[in-house]
Specification:
This protein has 196 residues and is an alpha+beta fold. 26% of the residues lie in helices and 37% in strands. The strands form 2 sheets. It has a 6-stranded antiparallel beta sheet with strand order 1-2-3-4-5-6, with no helix packed on it. The longest helix has 32 residues.
Length: 196
């Protein structure tokens, strides 16, 4: 009985090791599939990902502050670098909902789908002044000599100082939340460091 008992224990241990091995391999495979998340990347890797965005689609809440009031808009932005296409549709407030701004690298089209109104500006060269887009931030960041990257409490910030003559847009900061795997917000500050 002693020899059969020893063989049974050895077989049991081998089966247990095989089961644990299969479980560990499955868990490791799951983790490796999720390995391309922002959450496990360094600040420099995140900076590289952001700066190499070729296209994006975003729903954004935009708050514009002036000296006297504050207005909030909800917009849907689309950008495709390859097609050189930028599009922004206003979703809220309801009074201007349906307004669509589209730039194809040459012409700027503004239309309101609710009012069936359309205006085309041919050879429009001022679209770079659209400071509210991620594409504009990326261009500013790539071209600036004065930029900084930080990481604190799971938030990576890319900050760029602009060399523009516009006193309302002197600095832009992009906040990327590593834990939620998304861009959280972008702030634009004026010469007095007030968020505009």
């Amino acid at each position: 009985m002693g020899l059969k008992f020893k063989k049974t224990i050895i077989i049991f241990i081998i089966v247990l090791i095989l089961i644990l091995g299969v479980i560990l391999i499955k868990n490791n495979y799951k983790n490796s599939k999720n390995g391309n998340n922002i959450s496990n990347k360094s600040a420099d890797e995140i900076e590289n990902l952001i700066l190499n965005i070729g296209s994006y689609e975003a729903k954004a809440n935009i708050t514009i502050k002036s000296n006297k009031n504050q207005n909030t808009y909800v917009v849907k932005q689309k950008y495709n670098k390859e097609g050189n296409l930028y599009r922004q549709e206003i979703l809220e407030p309801s009074g201007i909902a349906g307004t669509l701004i589209q730039y194809d690298g040459k012409d700027l089209t503004i239309k309101n789908t609710n009012l069936n109104v359309k205006k085309i500006y041919e050879n429009y060269s001022y679209i770079e002044s659209n400071i509210l887009s991620l594409a504009s931030f990326i261009d500013d960041y790539k071209q600036s000599e004065s930029k900084e990257i930080k990481e604190e409490n799971g938030i990576v910030t890319l900050q760029v100082k602009l060399s523009s003559n516009n006193k309302y847009t002197m600095e832009k900061t992009l906040y990327i939340n590593k834990n939620e795997n998304k861009i959280e917000k972008m702030e634009i500050k004026d010469t007095t460091q007030n968020v505009r």
